[in-house]
Design goal:
One of its GO terms (biological process) is negative regulation of DNA-templated transcription. This is Transcriptional repressor NrdR. Keywords: ATP-binding, DNA-binding, Nucleotide-binding, Repressor, Transcription, Transcription regulation. Belongs to the NrdR family. With about 160 residues, the chain is α+β, with helices and mostly antiparallel strands. The chain has two domains: about 35 residues, no CATH class; about 100 residues. The protein is built from five helices and six strands; from the N terminus they run βββββααβααα. The chain has a three-stranded antiparallel beta sheet with strand order 1-2-3, with no helix packed on it. A three-stranded mixed beta sheet has the order 5-4-6. The protein is globular. It binds zinc ion (ZN). Zinc ion (ZN) binds next to loops.
């Protein structure tokens, strides 16, 4: 593996860790000391994405990750958590031939909602802006609404 900073080929692995569906390796350049991380993962057979206008495009992991990164900008969400969301989404849809882009958006929203409310609303606003204003309002209201209804007060019999 070539060092991304100086181009040297004298790099070594300092740590290797297995995650759900990837192997994460910490590497260090012997020449300039630069440390970087690489991921080795199974190449999943991903479906074509059917866009709203009916056209199809290739599944794009980076595009998905970028959308999540923008939503999580300056939020307390680690990069490895974002990677994990994408891993889980890929796992969810892999093996299918086609998937609607709206289904992917909904799946991301579902994950962000439990992770970080601000990231969730940001993602929802970008994702729902063009075709569903009511859906956006509903998304915001879902965050405001408590997940579970508060427990009923049991009147005391004195
Ligand atoms: Zn280097």
């Amino acid at each position: 593996m070539r060092c991304p900073k100086c181009g040297s080929t004298r790099t070594r692995v300092t740590d290797s860790r297995e995650t759900t569906n990837a192997i994460r390796r910490r590497r260090k350049c012997e020449d300039c000391g630069y440390r970087f991380t690489t991921y080795e993962r199974i190449e999943q057979v991903m479906p074509l994405v059917v866009k709203r206008d009916g056209t199809r495009e290739e599944w794009d992991r980076n595009k998905l990750l970028t959308g999540i990164r923008l939503a999580c900008n300056k939020r307390p969400v680690s990069y490895s958590t974002m990677q994990q969301i994408v891993d889980e989404i890929e796992e969810q849809f892999s093996g299918r031939q086609e998937v609607d882009s709206s289904e992917i958006g909904q799946a991301v929203m579902k994950k962000l909602r439990v992770l970080d409310e601000v990231a969730y609303i940001r993602f929802a606003s970008v994702y729902l802006r063009f075709h569903d204003v009511n859906g956006f309002i509903e998304a915001v209201e879902q965050v405001r609404r408590p997940q579970k209804p508060p427990e009923e007060q049991i009147p005391m019999n004195i």
